[in-house]
Design brief:
By secondary structure, this protein is α/β, with parallel strands linked by helices. It has 14 helices and 15 strands.
């Protein structure tokens, strides 16, 4: 067995029976892969072959999208996703990772921040369009050898429209049109825009003060009944195929209250991937940790006592999500700030500007752990672990960044075990120190620590073999599929 170099830093006490969704492992270790990282420069470039399948029970490929004209699933980056027209075939290369780890389940994520909510609302609103969508998904998953679908709809009953001239009907929903576009920046812009809306603007419930149902739906998304009906029908279609159905769900109380009927969703979803991060960021005018495990007294003072992992997890549990269906999110990145005064550098220190962009993620206010550990190795940083939040942050001159480190991972995986949750989820693999450049003695130090604390030793991979790449333009979609995806 291959043992992680950081195993001494984490506990390996296991206390639950094997979960049928987790397979041979005691706990889930779900790993999102943001495929736009293939376009990052230098050592930040991450391709399918950089994904370590031995550190994950489930790998989720992010993202596919929805064709708003046909209501069918589609590739968002055909040149990278498909082999068609001399493309890179990342779908098939990703699902081929199961050859190295036969226990791995590969899922296709659909949605993400830039996809918005409106077209998903429209698709879910009628039985015929739902069935068109579901049939296309089943065929798509079969074609590319995925084991299931992760529904990353952000969010039902929110973010429903780009029509600014109607935004006055619902007050603060006007901010919904500000999210950035573009495949490569999907992850970072999603992180900033999601919580900027939720924290600063706190939009009211969908359709408030709107009397016309279609108008309310068009602006704020679909009725929650449509979302539940959609996942119910997807699950029914998946059962004969043995496909898994999971969903990425938001961390904020407002989003949970407005977007989800948890007890109904729990009937059909195999796993809730709880995005327990992005509680604070540079959309605010003060410092705050990206994913604090617990509340600080300062949170009460600033009316942010719900902005922590412990609150989110328990709110889902109290709302009816079974603990054995919850994968708790752990971020492999941090949020950074530029301090107004370098002498004032604690939590909630004034900070009107984001940290300057890091070289790989290239988005002000966000750095991957691979970028953060490189910065820290340069020296001159002061690192603090807040005793109340049990969260770590570092500062140097005017730069302040909150992130998760090895000790944070131990705290969070111990928490997962203490509650008997299904396991962990990470966003996302391409921002761990996947090249092993920061001196931890192993590649992917955070993911390795997560695995060893939850599941013990890392399995030995099956010897690697490479599937021959097609030599000409092809269309590998099955003949029953009408959707034609072409290269660029």
């Amino acid at each position: 067995m291959r043992v992680a170099a950081v195993a001494a830093l984490v506990a390996v006490t296991l206390g639950v029976a094997v979960n049928e969704v987790a397979g041979a492992s005691n706990y889930l270790a779900t790993c999102y892969y943001g495929t736009w990282a293939v376009y990052r420069p230098g050592d930040g470039k991450f391709d399918v072959e950089d994904f370590d399948p031995m550190l994950c029970t489930h790998g989720i490929y992010g993202f596919a999208g929805l064709d708003e004209a046909t209501h069918k699933i589609k590739s968002l980056d055909p040149w990278n996703d498909l082999y068609d027209n001399y493309g890179k075939g990342a779908y098939m290369r990703f699902t081929d990772l199961k050859k190295r780890n036969p226990e791995l389940k590969t899922l296709l994520g659909i949605g993400g921040w830039n996809e918005g909510s409106t077209k998903y609302s429209e698709m879910a609103a009628s039985a015929s369009s739902r069935q068109t969508f579901i049939a296309s998904v089943v065929d798509f998953l079969k074609t590319y050898n995925f084991d299931g679908l992760d529904l990353d709809w952000e969010y039902p009953a929110e973010r429903g429209g780009k029509t600014i001239d109607k935004a006055s009907d619902i007050g603060s929903c006007s901010i919904y049109a500000t999210a950035g576009q573009g495949t490569e920046n999907e992850g970072s812009e999603r992180l900033l825009a999601t919580e900027k809306e939720r924290i600063l603007h706190r939009p009211p419930s969908c359709g408030k003060n709107i009397t016309h149902k279609a108008t309310a739906q068009g602006i704020c998304g679909t009725l929650l009944e449509d979302y539940v009906q959609l996942i119910k029908e997807i699950k029914e279609a998946f059962k004969p195929e043995g496909f898994l159905l999971t969903a990425a769900v938001g961390p904020g109380k407002t989003t949970i209250d407005d977007s989800y009927k948890l007890t109904e969703m729990a009937k059909y979803l195999d796993i809730f991937n709880v995005m327990a991060y992005d509680y604070h960021g540079s959309w605010e005018t003060f410092t705050g940790h990206v994913s604090p495990p617990y509340m600080s007294p300062l949170d009460i003072t600033n009316e942010m006592e719900t902005f922590n992992v412990n609150f989110t997890v328990n709110y889902y549990l109290d709302g009816g999500v079974p603990k054995e269906k919850m994968a708790m999110g752990i971020p492999l990145y941090g949020h950074g700030f530029t301090l107004n005064d370098p002498a004032v550098h604690g939590l909630y220190a004034p900070a009107n500007q984001p940290q300057p962009a890091c070289p790989y993620t290239r988005q002000a206010g966000i750095c991957g752990f691979n970028e953060i550990c490189t910065m820290l190795n340069e020296g001159g940083w002061t690192t603090v672990r807040d005793p109340d939040q049990q969260a770590v942050y570092s500062y140097k001159d005017r730069i302040w960044v909150g992130y998760d480190d090895l000790e944070s991972v131990k705290i969070k995986t111990d928490y997962i075990k203490s509650l008997g949750l299904a396991g962990s989820m990470v966003w996302s693999v391409e921002t761990d120190d996947f090249r092993g450049l920061c001196g931890f003695g192993t590649k992917n130090p955070l993911m390795t620590a997560i695995w060893t604390n939850l599941n013990g030793d890392i399995p030995t991979p099956v010897p690697h073999t490479t599937t021959p790449r097609p030599t000409g333009p092809v269309n590998i979609l099955s003949s029953s599929t009408t959707l034609r995806l072409t290269g660029r």
